[in-house]
Amino acid sequence: MNQSLKSVLKKAFQYLFQGIVVIAPIAITIYFVFWLFFTIDSLLPNLYSKFGTVPEETHIPGVGFLVIVILLMLIGRASSTFVFGHMLDFLGSLLEKTPGIKLIYSSVKDFLKAFSGSQKKFDKPVMVNVDSENVWRIGFVTQTDANNFGFANHVVVYVPFSYAISGVTYLVPKEKIKFLAEEIHSTDAMKFVISGGVTEMENKN
After folding, report:
1. CA atoms within 13 A on the CB side of 116
2. Which of 23, 71, 88, 169 is buried most deeply by CB count within 10 Å?
3. What number of CA atoms fall less than 13 Å from residue 181's CA on the CB side?
4. Are the CB atoms for 127 and 112 separated by under 8 Å?
5. 99 within a domain of the structure (yes/no)
């Protein structure tokens, strides 16, 4: 194989890889959005089929998705009312006292609350020293003390893994953490960790 052909093939593979890098995030995102849309949209016809036969031609794509989104918005609005709010609190307390179900319900509830509302947990990005003296990980303070575990002057830090949705929880002394600058948003810190440090941190100064 002569040198010019090698050069052409090398260039071709380079363009191929570059095309994958460019199109893959777009394709995966579009696929996920369509998958989520059609999955939610299929819930309503499936509910209809429990009570009767629905002709195929009566199904309009998107109607199920729209109805479920509106229903969730109405539930969210109603949850702020006195009566409905107390009903949800009663149901929640009942589930939290049910063996087996308690673990699932409380875990999902706390996980979702960690990303929204006034009880957000991943809004305090820090650098935490847990491996060796000069090695630091990026994590998030989820509890400002660990007294319940018998560790005074300790904080609870969650450290996410790169290219994964999992992570590890550490109980570390307060002097082992350094809060990141206020200019670094928690979302940017999370993206930086999950991307394996590939995502560039925006300097807002």
Report:
1. 4
2. 88
3. 7
4. no
5. no
Q: Which element (helix H / strand E) includes 172? A: strand 167-173
When divided into structural domains, the chain yields a total of 2
Q: Does a structural domain hold residue 185?
A: yes
Give the integer Cα–Cα distance in Å for 28 and 38. Answer: 15
CA angle 157–162–166, rounded 5-degree value: 60
Single out the residue of 139, 205, 132, 192 nearest to residue 170, CA to CA. Answer: 139
Q: Where are the alpha helices (DSSP H) in the chain?
A: 3-41, 43-51, 63-78, 82-96, 101-113, 186-194
Which domain range does residue 136 map to?
120-194
Say if CB 174 and CB 168 are below 8 A apart.
Answer: no
What percent of the chain is modeled with pLDDT above 70?
Answer: 78
Is there a domain that residue 190 lies in?
yes
Model pLDDT for residues 22-47, shown as the tens digit of each residue: 677 677 777 877 887 777 777 666 55
**Is the pLDDT confidence value at 56 over 60?**
no
CA contacts within 13 A on the Cβ side of 1 = 6
CA angle 117, 119, 121 (to 5 degrees): 110
Q: What CATH number does residue 124 fall under?
A: 2.30.30
Is residue 91 situated within a structural domain? no
**Nearest one of 105, 107, 104 to 88, comparing CA atoms:** 105
Question: How many CB atoms within 10 Å of residue 9?
Answer: 11
